[in-house]
Amino acid sequence: RKKAYAVAGGVPVEDDELVIQEQRRRNQRQAAKNVEPLKPLIPSVYLQPCTYLVAHPLMTGYFSRSVICILDHTDAKDDPDTNSFGTDGGTYGLVINKMGVGPTGRDRMLSQVIRADAVPEKLRDAFGDCSVREGGPVNVSLQMIHVATPDQDVEHGIGGNVLSMIPPTNASSTSTTENGDDDIPASTAIESDAAIYFRGDVLKGAQAVLDRKIDRDNFSFFVGASCWEAGQLESEIQRGFWLPCRGPPNVCFTGMCEHNTDDVNNRIHNNDNKDTGRLVTGIVAGTKQSDRPRADLWLSMMSANGNDNATLAHLLLKEEYHEDTEACDDF
């Protein structure tokens, strides 16, 4: 195959190398902000609330391209009174990036997913037209996550468990910079007076909304959940089905993430200034340094799991597949 070259400063650079450089920049721009991989071989690191499970790009079926937030984990114990899963233990979480879609292709509303005779009037008035996400294939009951300040929590008594970001000491530090160095600093949680809660009292939340004490947008709803028996999730992670990550609790609430676009562009600019022998910007047709990341949480979480995982995720996106392009094994 004939090679194409770009010349910068009198130094020829192979086209393939330029493509790889542009792919790395694209991956860095797409990576979710404040998200880092967790050590997959240490269950105690990832079997805790606010761990994000990112489906491997080759996973098919219901969980294909899913992002799950673990909300609870309990080890097997002899005393069922101290174990939310009984004596067997287990893990409970929610898929956070799948909207419930009705027959017309529109997002499903809360009033559409629960029988009218099973919805209290208070709940219907407060949240009836709120969008509902698919939390998983089991336990098809209504799940709620909400945001509240400490004062609101005390005043309205909605309650629930606080979802806290996992400490950075548990991260596996596989994210890389432009030069492949592991020097991206450990991330911190989004600073806010409000906290993310799960397992709160939905009727008390509805009353607070009807009383105009809390904004309705502070509540997020799911139908269904994702559950594993004791030992099942550990086995799936060890076999590579899921990539565990740490990240801000707000990602669970919104199903969206921020990106490091400004930081990445500044880092690329600095590296370009240092490397005067190579032309490394604007080389590949159709790519621009200012390209915005895709609004795809799964892709962003995959991109935060290192350059190789990010490249594989982009490669397997259906919208990027063209039957007339070169085969990936055509070396």
From TrEMBL:
SUPFAM superfamilies: VC0467-like. It comes from the Eukaryota. Gene3D superfamilies: VC0467-like. It holds the Pfam family DUF179. Coiled coil: none annotated. InterPro entries: AlgH-like. This is YqgE/AlgH family protein.
